[in-house]
Design goal:
With 333 residues, the chain is an alpha/beta fold. It folds into two domains: 155 residues, Rossmann fold (3-Layer(aba) Sandwich), CATH 3.40.50; 166 residues, L-2-Hydroxyisocaproate Dehydrogenase, Chain A, domain 2, CATH 3.90.110. Helices cover 40% and strands 20% of the residues. It has eleven helices and 16 strands. Strand 15 and strand 16 form a beta hairpin. The radius of gyration is 19 Å and the shape is globular. The mean pLDDT is 96. It binds nicotinamide-adenine-dinucleotide (NAD) and (2S)-2-hydroxybutanedioic acid (LMR).
């Protein structure tokens, strides 16, 4: 087992970065490994990372290794084990005179970032590097990056853990239990308003959440739309896109990938479809995942999808296919 780990974080001077980076070195996410940080920003703000580096040093983190910061992504990528690709523009802001309303409006703005970063990860990252795309639209950005990396032994994911955590929170309130007791809470499809939070496979004490809730009206009119639109609700309330919950979800994803999944559970992230559950190959789709005892991240293949789940998932697949079509010029595999 490696005692040291190198983690690259882009968008390190942004909102998510500020909440995420200290917790990468706090001894929880990577256990007792020494964490070497490689922080990346655009040239205009890279100097601000000096302040973050000072704060990290001042925070008494026994697991903190080296801290490097740069605007040169290729240099940062060398021999890295983990890439947390946060750097990109959020929605809710005005860009080129236009307010960005939907995550998909970011396709053309952010997509290009992932071509260059993907190439560098494929060339300079570790052969078994894990890559988590947080920047929106996360699924299609990950598709672009993965194609540019052209390195199948690396593991590309897009984040849907935040959606799963939101779903667990709503279900725990409804069922008066702790969020940690909700298992197998999977988000299928795209990190967008078409995502499908699968309450039918979710479990509380090994019992179906769907049966325990026993309120289809609440599921259809409250639960599903609230999970799908929670990102917008946070932007409306906060005046900025979710940051501390997004950082926590990224940490939860890393933790889930670094540790064997407990039996009877699975976790949520979008990965490249190999045709599992009849999802067309070649899109990054939210699936149920597990980490094996040897550290492989695999799709869990034995969940049942009801007719309702299938038709909701099909809507999200259609959206992913149309996003793929919209960025076909960036898919440089
Ligand atoms: P932010 O604007 O506070 O920070 C983004 C940072 O990225 C900025 O500091 C910017 O300079 C940097 N950046 C831009 N282009 C870069 C590049 N090419 N290389 C390195 N850094 C670059 O935004 P934020 O709130 O931290 O959000 C970041 C992204 O995460 C947004 O796209 C947002 O929509 C997305 N997000 C995703 C989820 C999810 O669940 N997948 C949740 C929340 C936010
Ligand atoms: C979220 O779900 O909070 C993020 O994807 C930010 C957004 O634009 O909704």
């Amino acid at each position: 087992m490696k005692k040291e780990i190198k983690v690259v974080v882009t968008g390190a001077a942004g909102q998510i970065g500020y909440s995420l980076i200290p917790r990468l070195v706090d001894g929880n996410t990577f256990g007792n490994k020494t964490v070497n940080l490689s922080l990346v920003e655009i040239p205009q703000v890279v100097s601000k990372l000096e302040g973050l580096a000072m704060e990290l040093e001042d925070s008494y983190f026994p697991n903190l290794g080296s801290i490097n910061y740069t605007d040169n992504f290729s240099e940062a990528s060398r021999d890295a084990d983990w890439f947390l690709l946060v750097g990109s523009i959020p929605r809710g802001i005005v860009y080129n005179g236009k307010k960005i309303e939907e995550r998909s409006d970011l396709l053309q703005i952010n997509g290009g970032i992932f071509v260059e970063q993907g190439k560098a990860i494929g060339e300079f990252g570790n052969q078994n590097a894990k890559v988590l795309v947080v920047g929106n639209p996360a699924n299609t950005n990950a598709l672009i990056g993965r194609a540019a990396a052209n390195n199948p032994s690396q593991n590309w994911m897009a984040m849907t853990m935040l959606d799963a955590n939101r779903a667990k929170s709503m279900l725990a309130k409804k069922l008066t239990c702790n969020v940690s007791e909700i298992k197998k809470m999977i988000i299928w499809g795209n990190h967008s308003p078409t995502m499908y939070p699968d309450y039918e496979n979710a479990l509380l004490n090994n019992q179906s959440v769907s049966k325990l809730v026993n309120d289809e009206d609440w599921i259809d009119s409250k639960f599903i739309p609230s999970v799908q639109q929670r990102g917008k609700a946070v932007i409306d309330a906060r005046g900025a896109s979710s940051a501390t919950s997004a950082a926590k979800a990224a940490l939860d994803t890393v933790y889930a990938c670094e540790n064997e999944t407990e039996s009877g559970n699975c976790f949520s992230a979008a990965v490249y479809s190999d045709g599992a559950y009849d999802v067309p190959k070649g899109i990054m789709c939210g699936f149920p995942l597990m980490t094996t005892s040897s550290g492989e991240i695999e799709i869990v293949r034995d969940l049942n999808l009801s007719e309702k789940a299938r038709s909701r998932l099909d809507v999200s697949i259609a959206e992913l296919l149309s996003e793929k079509e919209a960025v076909k010029d960036l898919l440089t595999e």
